[in-house]
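Can't paste images in this forum, so I'm doing it all in text. The chain is below; anyone willing to post the predicted structure tokens underneath?
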Amino acid sequence: MNLAADGLGRIVARSEAMRALLAVAGRLAEARSPVLLEGESGSGKDLLVHLLHESGGRRDFPLVKIHCPSIPEELLESELFGHEKGAFTDARRTKLGKLELAQGGTVYLDQVQDLAPALQAKLLRVVEEKRFERLGGTRTIEVDVRFVASSNVSLRHAVAGGTFREDLYHRLSVVPLAIPGLRERLDDILPLAELFLARERDRGTTRAAGFDAEACERLRGYHWPGNVRELRSVVERAALLAPGPEPISAAALPVHLSEQAGSLWTGRERRPSLKTVEEAYIRHVLRETGGSQTRAAAVLGVSRKALWEKRRRFGIP
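Text version of the structure:
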């Protein structure tokens, strides 16, 4: 299936980078092998997982998402494998784990880099053998699922740093797909902005018909460290500030877009490093959220622990 051609109506792929990615994804739709998606937060990993699932033979079976950072380590094993009645104090009945609930379908391990080391070994067996036992149980359960994992950091670097098992990495990355950041997909920026604006019109938020020339220039000139998620938030805000029928102007866009598009990224020689961009964006989001670690982490699409580590690395109080 040529996913680049139909896009299932959900992934905008005007850029060569995204067309190439979807062409590869189309060849994987019917495959049984695990797929590893790597890309920055907000770049569209969740959409690609749905695309892989819905365009293959498992579409009529469940797609079960496991967001690894959000489940406490002591509960994650029970969430994955389920538990038998009496397995621990509060286990009053047998519970099916998410692996069983996904029978016949797809298991999506979101932000797999945060999976606890002890569970990495148990997950390796399931990925390899498709067998496991419930917590507190002895009966071996077999499952027919396809694994798709995602990470917003390089798992290869995590292996080198000793935080992720090398054998599990090799099993999950049979087919690795790198999702490009929005700054590498310039031809997608305006179509995405128009798509998000159309959604706001459907909601009755605005009657604005597109963006004027200066606004388009600002959108294309910005570096988008928050990727598609950041662009969607910017369009939603602009729609609120420009409810009339005229095109959205640059004045309705956040000031930092104009400042950065007009100064930091005018001319190749003046473009900052990704580290500088990331630090600047984290500082901006923290200001916008009043310094709330929880809200800022949600906007950035990372765990609170990951945000804390970035703040420590950049010296952000």
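Residues 186-203 form the longest helix (18 residues). The chain has two domains: 3-178, 183-314.
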